[in-house]
Amino acid sequence: MNTLILRTVAPVLTALMLLFSVFVLLRGHNEPGGGFIGGLIAASALAIYGIAFGVSAVRRAIRFHPMAIAGAGLLLAALSGLICIFAGVPFMTGLWIYPEILGVEVPVATVMSFDIGVYLVVVGAITSIALALEQEESEPAEAIGEQPPPVRVKRPRKPAHKPKERG
Amino acid sequence: MAANVSALTFIVLFLPFLGAVLAPGLTRLLGDKAAWFLALAPALAFLHFCTFLGEIAAGEVVTGGYAWVPSFNLSFSWFLDGLSLTFALLITGIGTLIVVYSGGYMKSHPDQGRFLAFILLFMGAMLGLVVSDSFFMLFVYWELTSITSFLLIGFDHEREAARRAALQALVVTGGGGLCLLAGLVFLWNITGVTQLSLLVHLENGLRESPFYLATLILVLAGAFTKSAQFPFHFWLPNAMEAPTPVSAYLHSATMVKAGVYLLMRLSPVMGHTPAWEILLPFFGGITLISGTLLAIRQTDLKLMLAYTTMASLGLLVMLTGFGAPHAVEAAVLYLVAHSLFKGALFMVAGAVDHETGIRDVTRLGGLKAAMPITFAAGLLAAFSMGGLPLFFGFLAKEEIYTALAAGNPRAVFFTALAVVGNALMFAIAFAVGLKPFLGPRVETPKQAHEGPAALWLGPVVLAALGLLGALFSGLAHRYVSSPMASAIVDRRVTVEIAAMPHVGLPLLLSLVTITLGVLVYWRLDTARALMVRVLENLGPGPDRGFDHLISGLVRLSGAVTRFVQPGRLEIYVTATFILLALTLLVPPFVFGELPGMPNWPEKILVQEAAFLLIALIGLIAVLRAADRLTAIVSLGIQGFAVAVIFLLFGAPDLSFTQFMVETLSVVILALVMTRLRLSPRDHRPVGQMLLDAVIAVACGLGFTLLLLKSVEAPFDNLLTDFFNTYSKTIAHGANVVNVIIVDFRGTDTLGEIAVVMITGLAVLALIRVKAGRRVAAEDKQGGRP
Known about the structure:
A: mainly alpha, 6 helices
């Protein structure tokens, strides 16, 4: 599926889908949407990017290990519940504040940060599974690491520049 | 004042744990001197418990505690009466000496800090056990003593024998602990209380309960395993693999007495029944005799002592359950005497081993001149163990014979047992405390000389206490024996026996015991040879049985695992779906709950029909697909059609999710296919295909029936109305679905996303296992895990 059309469209499509996923996440409280759906959309976006450009490109693009993203999400969600300790209300009670930003009253809630946590967990977990599956067994080691590989066009099935040690 | 004492007691109960935390660091800092500082923890605790002596002797009890889990009526509470106070004093007092002794014994051992930490950890657990008021607190501490005992026996973990002994002790005492837990739950259910202090003073009808016998057997299983009663005794001699301070402390003076403690504690509520008075003396008597006979056969100093410890525990159990007047007093006296002399003798054996490098009694001799202080301590302790007049062991023995000797056959039988047992123990006492020091000097691997103060302080103090306790028996009885005996029988009793011999039947029996003992000591080698022959003819004992049991268990679980997990994915999937189909189909047929024919809708919109048709086409495409990849993509067609149908029926959130899940599952399934390197086509034989088709259709049919049945019932609007009404007002959100997910049922969602995350991790791990060596190599290079 490494076609020219896909590789031309993929960056735009991915960006749009990611933007859309955030939109879906934020509107979720009042309209159809939410963290779960948003997360799935974002994961699909990254999957498309991965199909077009290969796994290491995605890993570079998201900077963090997908599992770290999922972990951060879980932490955020848990903290959104735990913050209730300081307010003296039961665990997971939604807390709302209404700060004025640029003259507009913006409702901010622990419910929202919780939903963002859900979003991150879903993106992280699914992306990490998809990337691990997409990863060619012969792909170079640094594909998993953070350091950027030399700039080159990724050809998934081509043997790597490192000696192969198939497991 | 009372609150202060409570807080202080609470702190004291945690002192040993604090010491355990500090031990490794302190040892690194101070080296071999650390033990002297660490001994402060038990010493302070000892002093604190001493302050209660007067109060307890006056017949009062000290209680205190804090709520722990109030909703379950669990509390962290303690209860000090004569029984628990005596135990607490023994644990902290002997514990202080043992910590000091360990410092000398483990001198310049690289793991000394860890050893001291374990010893202190055990001390904290044991202390908690005896002062616990709540059953469940007692149980937690009980198990903690088993675990720390495991750590200590296996301390020398590089030797296989030590590992085996540790595991064996843990399995036996841990298994007994589980029985005890069941017994305690029974006690709780029958009486309705969870506190020992309430239980003891309650008219609770425990003995009349139909569950009395079950409770008794469970509690006895716990106590007998812990106190090494026949046939669970085998772990105790094996536990001698531990360094000697451990044997002296855990496996003679304290931990093994936990079972006896429990029996004494429960005797006011469970005792005085035929079952109690048969089971306890019976098992105790067998343990006494078999322990002493096995001890005679040994030549290793520690093993001789270990078997006599087992015998002594048997004697204690026998006395606790005997039921005659004075029996409990005898048990109390013997328990205290035993802790003192056996602790001392173990430490003497350890010192001899430490200074000569040999523990074999037949290869030791003439150490009198080289180790005079150790010799004195050993001799004093042996006098007490042998029950010679003027020593505490004598008081105990007089009281034992006073209790046992009576005219009826049962009493005569048990008296005979006690005389034989005591005589053999007399012989062993001198074989350990006297024999290595007398006679001509024998060459030993190390040049023997007196050890440092740390090595002889403990035995000297304990042995001297055995003498002083008897000389000032009035004082000892007033503060220790009488309160403890009173606590066990639950009414005031006074122990009066004095150190001076007075003419009577007990003295006569004592004389018989001593004569017999001297005889056996004189012909010890003959007796040993005799026992070796007898035991060889008896064949393997329960120790071997344990090995067979464990290897049998391993084989059984291997067989079960191989049956349940054959390792082929097809089998798992087939089994899962067969079970699913059965679960869905069998109940409706058996209970006649089949749904009726659904009403055909009056009009179907064109678009609804169209998407149903698309779903159907997708299904046919799956069935007709030539290769697997096509089948997966075709499955997506059907999924999307269903998603649209959800949308048409007003469930946008559900539909959205369905869309995304379908997309991603097609992507992921396709990736899995390429990864697994399956052949692109399906090569199942026709028979297999038919079977799979039947299972698939059965599952589908089952789900259809289930759905039809559930929509048949009238729809309950309660929740819908609640969420519609309150979603906006209390949760500030209009999208009810999302509000439920993130607010109303937020805690559920938190759990779910944790599951998502863990699933991701698990999948990742599985994929990387497949990747194998490459990943391992890359991790070694410091690559990202």
